[in-house]
Every structure is written in C-alpha cells, then in structure tokens.
Amino acid sequence: EGLRGGVVYHDGQFDDSRMAITLALTAIDKGGVCLNYMKVNCLLKDAAGKINGVHAVDTLDGKEYQIKSKVVVNATGVFVDDVMKMDECDTRRKVRPSQGVHLVVDSKFLGGRSALMIPKTKDGRVLFGVPWHGKVVLGTTDTPLNEASLEPRALEEEVDFILDQAGQYLDRKPTRADVLSIFAGLRPLAAPTHADSKKTKEISRNHKIYRSKSGLLTITGGKWTTYRAMAEDVINQAIVIGGLSPAECVTKNLRVHGYTKEQFDENDWNYVYGSDAGKIQKMIEKEPSFAEKLYEGYTFTAAHVVWAAREEFAQNIEDVLARRVRMLFLDARAALKIAPKVASVLAAELGKDKTWEQAQIADFNRLARGYILN
Predict the structure, then answer these.
(1) Above 70 in pLDDT, residue 199?
(2) pTM, whole model, 2 decimals?
(3) Which of 66, 94, 181, 224 makes a 20 to 30 Å CA pair with 298?
C-alpha cells in the first residue's frame, strides 16, 4: 500500500570473522607471524622516548614477553584510545563507539534471495534485510556509546525498533519468538572534532591516522570496505617512521588465502574455505569420525572444529562457534546444544582434560545466553 516504485542494485557480501581469519592466514602465507590471545600491557621506549616495542602477555598461560620492533601500529578498533593512553596518558579520545544491533531470523521472512533495503525508517536511517548463510539478518541501529566493551549487548529499544520497522515491510511480521540470534557490534568511528556532533550517523566513516611524538602510529575509523586503502596509508607512514625500505603496495591484485575459481554449493559450510575445502575433505578421509554433523539442519561437522583448532587459531568453544563456523550468530539455541560436543572435539585436539571441558561449557553457556532474545 502506497508503494511508488523500487530500485534494484548490486552489492557485495562477506562474513567479517571469516574475512579477518582469511587475512591473518594470508599474512602468514606471505611470511608474517600472527599471535592470538596475546595482550599488550604497555609500550616499550628507548632512552630518547621513542617506541621500540611492546610488553605483552599470553592470556592463555600468563607468560610475559618483550617484543621489540621498529614500528608499532595501534589498529585496535574501539580500543585504540586505551593503547594511546599507554603512550600519552592525557591524550584526547580519538574514537566514538557506535553500536549496531542485528537480529537473525529464518529465511522465510525475506521471501527471496535478494536483500531488502528500506530507506525511510522512523529515525531517518535505512533498514536492511540481508540473506546470510541461509538465514536473514535484520538491522541495524546506530546508538552512540560512551564506553566500549568486549561483549556489547543490544538495548531493548534497539530490538523493538528493528522488529517494528521490519514488520511494516515484510509479508511475515517477525516477533521476538522468531529471533534465532541477536548480536551487537561496535563501530570505531573517528571522534568528531566538534563537540556538537552528537548523532553518530553524522560522524564521518573515513579513517584517520595519528602519529604521536614517540612514534606510535594509530589508525581509527574506516570500514571493512576500505580496509586495503587503510592498510596502504598506514604502511606508507610506517615505512617513514621505521626507516624501512620503500615499496609499492601490492594488495590491489593480491589473491587472499583460499583463492580458487572452483564453484561451491553455498548451502554447504565448506564453501567458506575456498581451496582449503579439499584439505578438510582429506582430513575426513583420514579420520572418518570427523564427518559427524554437529546439529541437524546444519552442515557444520567435527572436521570444521578440528580445522579451526589446527589452522585457524581457535582455542575454545567461543572461537569455534562464534567466529569460525558462526553458529552462535545463526542459531544461538542450537549453539548451546552442540557446545558439549565441540568441547569434546577441542579437548581431544588440544590435549585438554574433562575439567577444562566442563569449564569451557559453563563459560560458553554464559556467553550464549546473551545471544538469545527472551
């Protein structure tokens, strides 16, 4: 009713966690070293006050390390201010966190394979309904926050806003009971220079780079869609600070880890691994028990858990179900049910005991409850 017309346009789609892992693997392919669960506690400086490394702790075993370097880049998203304060305690905040909330529902609510963009919601922003790994993601919001957290949670008003607005445009009106998973993310928006810029949608999504007197290089703002330009800008400055050999950026045509021209069935989770899918299949042929499906209606297998531990830095249930196979984001209740199986597979792979398994299950249960909309 009241429809005047519509526009069809083509856009790209990706999975943020899978992309991050793929980039880490690409860095390793090119000779880089990637460390998971390594937390920087303070910055190291030479006699002249120039940064020459970091003091870090392995959060899994508590061991501490001094890591020397020619350049330190602070690319920690919504937490860049915390690292900058390690360098200069009175530095002005450079990030304005903005929370975006998403609700995941069954694909039947969209009624097709195309994404839907609603350009006129009650607060003047757009609302999306996007097909994603066989489900539909509804969102998002843009809520300014004063503090960043590792596990942001949706506000009730954000949930109500998405359900209300989506319900006005979809044939099937989604309710709280239809939500399979709810999650929130924080955008590391570059803080505005004018104090009167209160609405986060008015804050530029462009990235900004800061160089401190001690040589700390900080990048903030930006978006996934501009990550290569962001990286190029940072490295160009790092070359100058560290006295490194100048080199042209090669990422424009760089094929990331897993690149292949082979076509995959997107209804099977193996499609996210590209050329690594064949290696996972060989793993199953060597150990047939790895072929066991984790949950009915999903194609996740024990092999994907083992692969996550062996090749993708996974150390616990959350790593696997939240950021490697995305089950927590697709169906939080299903993720809760398969957590014990994942703990068992991980324990065997990582050499952990039953006590570790039980602790893992308890930790994941606490986490997963925050992804279920009651």
Answers:
(1) no
(2) 0.92
(3) 224
